[in-house]
Amino acid sequence: MNAEIITIGDELLLGQVIDTNAAWLGQELNKNGLRVHFKSTISDTHEAILKALYEAQQRSDVVVLTGGLGPTKDDVTKIALAQFFNTRLILNQKVLDWVTSIFSKRNLPMLESNQQQAMVPENCEVLWNKNGTAPGMWFFENDTAYISMPGVPFEMKSIFEEEAIPKLKSVFTFPEIIHRTLQTCSIGESYLADLISPVEENLPSYIKLAYLPDVGSVRLRFSAYGSRNHKPEAALNQIIKQVYELAGQYIFGEESDTLQKVVGKMLKEKNYTIATAESCTGGFVSHLLTSVAGSSVYFKGGIVAYANEIKINELYVDPKILESAGAVSEACVIAMAENLCKKMKTDYGIATSGIAGPDGGSIDKPVGTVWIALATPDKTITRKYNMGDNRERTIQRTALVALDMLRKNLSGLVQANTF
Amino acid sequence: MNAEIITIGDELLLGQVIDTNAAWLGQELNKNGLRVHFKSTISDTHEAILKALYEAQQRSDVVVLTGGLGPTKDDVTKIALAQFFNTRLILNQKVLDWVTSIFSKRNLPMLESNQQQAMVPENCEVLWNKNGTAPGMWFFENDTAYISMPGVPFEMKSIFEEEAIPKLKSVFTFPEIIHRTLQTCSIGESYLADLISPVEENLPSYIKLAYLPDVGSVRLRFSAYGSRNHKPEAALNQIIKQVYELAGQYIFGEESDTLQKVVGKMLKEKNYTIATAESCTGGFVSHLLTSVAGSSVYFKGGIVAYANEIKINELYVDPKILESAGAVSEACVIAMAENLCKKMKTDYGIATSGIAGPDGGSIDKPVGTVWIALATPDKTITRKYNMGDNRERTIQRTALVALDMLRKNLSGLVQANTF
Asked: What are the chain A neighbours of B12 within 8 Å (beta carbons)?
């Protein structure tokens, strides 16, 4: 079972947009046991799309296309597909009703170009796009499946997960493959590899391990390929158990867990509340916490204290601390976190202060220096880090480390440097 | 002049690594007037690489390969290139000396696999890799240039910029190509297309327009291909001028501008300060503002008032407003924005309150209902929106719309619904 991915658009060839769709599709296809053997990116012209389709036909069982659909793209992919399958475009009334309803709900006039979205090749089955106006399309000819979707990532993802994958499963027999993902943070890839090397060295041949690093976190994905001779599920469970024994404290969740979801669930279960007092992270910690649906149950609010006067006026940081130790200091984050909890009447408080850069560094406190404090019901925990010299990554890493300090405390894990 | 990019590696096909190299190379080639007409990603096997080379030979003048080089990759690309050019691998003493010096400097033992790095196809010219042990390679045959580089991004980038581009310029005469990008927001793709249709309908054949939509924003990219008969730069300037006349109020910047950078620059120039009072956006507006280096000059701080008690205690919202009109109301966001400015002593204040969902909606105020207020030095402006039913996008769109209200006010653009 060979799959290939064709992403369409000059913006991809020009490098104006990084092709995250192709990576996401590669992961999803692979997760379902389909091997992606080829990916290509082509221009959004009729000729390029037709050529790519003829070549794909000869070598792949599943062909996934994204892009070249939409009111201003002249729906070039749709027209090329109609020619490739030697058919014509017809009006799909259900899609037209859907597009019309979107515009009337938002009280916006519908343009001629929006009506064109409801025209699809006669031989296709529409894959429903609940997030937009350009429908996905499914074709099946000579034992090959063709899936065409718009290039907007969130539209593409829901069409693929909810519409395309079930169609594929109804047509093909997928090889048996089981994936288990462990989510880790606060540990680098090579240290993690070192820690779990006893597991990795003894993996059976039918189980593969992949390290998927991101800013501040590493996912471990175990993939077991089934057959009659072994029970991959039982073997996988045993391996996962061993990994927990070796590196349990770094594992914050499984599958698609995020740190903010995990700590949110813990706070809710234990009936705790939380607030944030952010300097260098500028609101990113509270953004992560509130990105979780239902977070209003435990998250009360926060103060972004960027200027020193806000630290003094809103968080009652003693001006003497700012004069002597400075805003990026242990004394400052302790005061921020503890006063915050009193002020907002919460059980937990997270405070951050650091030098995100590129300016503001010194010999004593280079760019990347960050202090984090976590006020808990019985003590305040602090940590100092150097997060490196990239502003964006310093903000992200600091937020994740702060949430991980909270996770460890809520889990009863021992942390050093406590007060 | 057609260029193509071949990226090599199973980690790219599996989507474990997002292919940022291809995007970067696309930008660099394009900047230099070389049109990238095709990009592909292939498996790191001898067969896949050979096949890709034979196909590339037939359609491209410049072939850029990355990946499949290095001690743990078995140098598969190098071996395939030697076979493709019908030549053998020979030792390059200069490379061997370089690799040896790297290991001795770090006091590390040199392995057999590291010595192999100094073996290169006999017909290649080495492109110096000052950041690593795997050399880049340059081949020129039948008027086609082949550039092979390691996949590690910072090694690849310096080889390409410092070694490959000068070689290309010595061999080919580069065509002239000019790109101009306009950044727009607060208008949908199809409305924007409608608005600027007089420009689009009259574009000369050598100028192309692309719409690049994202959540809450659309980029317009014009590309002009030069020749002896016309002056693309002058024509492009004329077209850009017309677009500004037709849709100027929606254009917040050019090239790689972001809304937060643009409003930050305006605030700085006018010596204004700003603060945020966020409910539904949960800190995302202040995160965007503080993601800009140097934002501490104009951004003082913010209050994330998620719970009603924080709105009352920190932002002095009258409890009667919350009882009668509710937290998601015009009266509430006006109070939040105005009291915030007084409290933090800023010229501008942004306040948001809405129902991000998935719960909390009602018939009067469905999920996605959002009120935004912008307090300015002389008045407070408000807006009501329905941002749809996806939590993440409601947060993002609300933040962008709020920043765009600020931009319009700072630019002196008229906005309706003022108070």
From this structure: 23, 26, 39
Q: What is the pLDDT of residues A169-182, one digit of tens each?
A: 999 988 777 889 99
Do the first three CATH levels of A177-254 and A259-411 match, i.e. the same topology? Answer: no
Could you give the CA distance from residue A304 to residue B340 in angstroms, rounded to a whole number?
12
Least confident residue range of A359-368, B9-18, B36-45: B9-18
CATH class of the domain whose range is A2-171: alpha beta
pLDDT digit string, tens, across residues B76-111: 899 999 999 999 999 999 999 998 998 887 777 777
* CB-nearest partner of A24 from B15, B191, B210: B15
| Contact between chains at B287 and A287 (C-beta distance less than 8 A) | yes
Please give the model's pTM, rounded to 2 decimal places: 0.81
Which residues in A lie closer than 8 A to residue B28 (C-beta atoms)? 15
Closest chain B residue to A220 measured between Cα atoms? B16
Distance CA(B296)–CA(A320), nearest Å, equals 21
Furthest-apart CA atoms within chain B: distance in Å: 85
Query: Under a CB-based contact definition with an 8 Å cutoff, are residues A170 and A228 in contact?
Result: no
Per CB-CB distance under 8 Å, the chain B contacts of A310 are: 300-301, 344
- Nearest CB neighbour to B306, from listed A70, A300, A391: A300
Q: Do B302 and A299 touch (CB under 8 A)?
A: no
Q: Which distant-in-sequence residues (6+ apart) come within 8 Å of A385 by Cβ? A: A354, A368, A369, A370, A372, A397, A398, A401
Partner A contacted by B210 (CB < 8 A):
yes
CATH number of A259-411: 3.90.950.20
Whether the CB-CB separation of A330 and A418 falls below 8 Å is answered with no
* A220-258 pLDDT per residue, tens: 989 887 766 677 888 899 999 999 999 999 999 998 899
Domain ranges, ordered by start, for chain B: 2-171, 177-254, 260-411
Q: Higher confidence at residue B87 or residue A390?
A: B87
User: Chain A window 182-201: which residues touch B at a Cβ cutoff of 8 Å?
Assistant: none
Q: Indicate which of A32, A296, A314 best probes the interface with B, i.e. most B CBs within 10 Å of its own CB.
A: A296
Fold of A177-254: Alpha-Beta Plaits (3.30.70)
ipTM over 0.85: no
Rounded average pLDDT over A19-31: 91
**To which CATH superfamily is domain B260-411 assigned?**
CinA-like (3.90.950.20)
Which ranges in A42-160 belong to alpha helices (H)? 46-59, 76-84, 93-105, 112-115, 153-159
Instruction: Read off the pLDDT of residues B186-236 as tens digits, 9 standing for 90 and up.
Output: 898 889 999 999 999 999 988 988 887 778 889 998 988 776 667 788 889
